[in-house]
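chain below, 410 aa
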Amino acid sequence: MITNDEVIQFLYSATASLAKGIDDEDIYRQLRGMLMADTKEGKLYKYRSFDKDGYSLSNLSSQTMYCSQASAFNDPFDCRMGVDYQSLAKDIADVWQEKADRFLLAVCQLRNGRVKLEDFSDADQEILSHWLDSEALNRLFDMAEVHPDVSHAEMEQYVVTHFQEFCDLLSPITGTASWNPLPESLLQKALEHTTDGQIDISGLARECGITDDADEITLGGLLLQYIDPSMVEKAVRAEAETNHLIQKIKSALDDRFYVGCLCNDYKNCLMWSHYADKHKGFCIEYDFSHVSDDMLPLPVIYSKKRVRMPWKFALDTTPENIAEANQRFLEALLTKDEIWQYENEWRILASPDAGHNLKMPPVSCIYLGALCSEENKKQITDIAAQLGVPVKRMKTDRGEYELHAQPVVV
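prediction:
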């Protein structure tokens, strides 16, 4: 069996290559090795129920598997990217930081006479002139140059005290026309709830007397209203825009991928209960041991943390950010909450162009649930005879919580 950590390590490197369109033979070699290590001779399983329209039996007889849009899954978190202010703030800060660092370096060089203002473009000259005239920024430089032993806390306090002035300096390079003034007391509270650049929104909300049981985005809106009651409309609009963005991402993933789900074990009692009509259904065994590389499924990551929305892609569509976004999308399709770890899932990501019913490797065995009816047993054995594959029936152990597969004699 492969471990979840091994899956994570492999998929993070594999999705990075796949997102860039790199067809790496080593990836497929590793993937095939992982499949063989996690399964019995490359066998994977699909649990099915006997639906009234006969779709599951049709898939069995045609040796196809139904791949669905992620929006049809029973887990509302499945294949869905996490959207929050922390990841947004981090990605925005990274983009802004690169621009701000460039201007800070230029100001340093201008102050030391290493370059001239005329060396820059007209647009940059306008911003740099504004920065050079900033009393708050010049004092900050003086603090660092004249007092090299000044503490980080003192520098931080200075920025908080002159927060509005620094925000105004950033407006031209961030594209933000204006900044709403923030009370210094709230900035102090925010700093007290900040660790490694990440603000604990829930903790800050509680500090401000907000006790709603809500996610970070809603709490952020409530904090806006706490700062200024007149910002209610802005908070409502921000939440609506966030929900619209989430829906766009969901639709984009649905349009780009169909997902087929498989398990590495035919004796999984929970899978029989949840996906095979409480042991009344059946389980199909597919043999992936000799399939071509492009048919190999991918293992699922189980994690406490959701894959985050790649905001950089929306902020700055460089080739690097596009590749990172594609990688995050693939990771989202292959990451599930760790409470589902019992499924030991492998997934096939299929193009919608191929349709919902994906041609599968050969069926090598069919397993009947322990409570499968005689009528349904007959339907399965008839199809098995056409396919030339054995049928086994699950039997419950009379002393332990175990299942046993015994051959069905027709």
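The two ends are 35 Å apart (CA to CA). Residues 193 and 200 are 5 Å apart (CA to CA).
thats it, cya
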